[in-house]
Automatic annotation (TrEMBL):
Transmembrane segments: 12-33, 45-65, 77-98, 104-126, 272-297
The protein's name in its UniProt record: TIGR03013 family PEP-CTERM/XrtA system glycosyltransferase
Pfam families attached to this UniProt entry: Bac_transf
InterPro entries hit by this protein: Bact_transf (IPR003362), EPS_sugar_tfrase (IPR017475), Sugar_tfrase_EpsB_2 (IPR017464)
Highest taxon of the lineage: Bacteria
Organism of this sequence: Thalassotalea nanhaiensis
Keyword list, A-Z: Membrane, Transferase, Transmembrane, Transmembrane helix
Family: Belongs to the bacterial sugar transferase family.
Primary location class: membrane
Amino acid sequence: MKNNNSHYLSLMLKILLFVDVLIFFGSFTLASIESFEQFLQFDFISKGVIFTITLQLSCLGLGLYKSKLREKFGGIAQRLILAIIISFVLLNILQIFIQSPLYHGQILFNACLFSLILSASFRLILIAFNVLGLARSNVLVLGVGQRALIIEKRMRREIDRKGFNLLGFVSMPGDTEVFINEDNLIKLDTSIIEYVLNNHIHEIVVATDERRENLPVDELFACKIRGVLVSDILDFIERETGQIAVNLIYPSWVIYSEGFTSNNDLRNSLDWLFNACLSLILLVITWPFMLMAYFAIKIENGLFSPAFFWQERVGLNGRIFNMVKFRSMQEDSEPNGAECTSISDPRVTKVGHYLRKYRIDELPQIYNVLAGDMGFVGPRPERPEFVEKFRKIIPYYNERHNVKAGITGWAQLKYPYGADDKDAQEKLKFDLYYIKHRSFMLDLLILIQTAEVVLFGKGR
């Protein structure tokens, strides 16, 4: 059986390798050439060849020429930066070892810098316009039942499929009923392995409702050894949407996965120091706004009215603490007990409306961060009454207390403001994703996006 997929990938990689040769040699030329006569000299050409080969070997070692590399631009840029740094160090070591100054320091630095800029720009163009197929993988879904329907419903828009092309859904014995739109169904007239190879499939997503004794294990194995990625629907949704589908979770997935506990020891060890430094920086920047908010509340509500609002919330490991905010609602706004707030809540004061819109009401929580009850980034802390309720009706809800609560979080960026049980479950999907993947880089990304929300008034 002819593997057209392999031939296609081979051609794609040859083109990428050839362009990188031109970029690396051209960068060296740009950084060091003084005249056309110099370019024709054997010494100049040999130095350029050594430079180019070193960079390409580094890129090869870091997986930049892997046929199945399906990284987003951020991941590719990180690999490329590391490859350039390694090459720079290796070429300097080579000069010391052979006791010959092959490259002037500034020339070598400039050549590496030009290579990084041009190669990163080239790959950005490939991803942006899906040239050579680098940006998007072709995906085939096994299943047409309830589980498969989640992919069709949640990823029906083009923006939801930025990282892949969904070729269609294949009916499997484990599906009791067909829920997928007929236009998206694929009726195979060949074996799965033949269809996969003939249609350049990069990934198979297993989304059958009942997989025991219903999966084509031999064919999936044959696809796997040919370099096709075989994914569970939970892992696929997690990767593509930035959330964990709690309604699909089954015990074995939790047991065999990394679970919902952070294994980043460095991040855990420096957690309080990282958050305390950010708190002090934020305090220095925002204290004038906090002072104006304090006086605005006093002017609207009266000189003797409280400007701060303290409320019990559930934090790390279920411990209850008192969270502080600027008061944005009228006093005694809950005569009948705990109530969820809504988007156009009539209890919100005029000043409170602007405090909430620009998240100024959250700034006093700097105190909670310094006290160690909260972090800057994490799941938003809920009230004990709501936690007790959600734990009973939402699976895995208590797992969000495996990390400190945060002033801002992944769920706040990815999901609109909501106040009912369904909204709580949807937010949990993003909270669990954050807990599983949290790192300094993810925290930084969330903080940057939160700043955009605040500056442009996109808050609630």
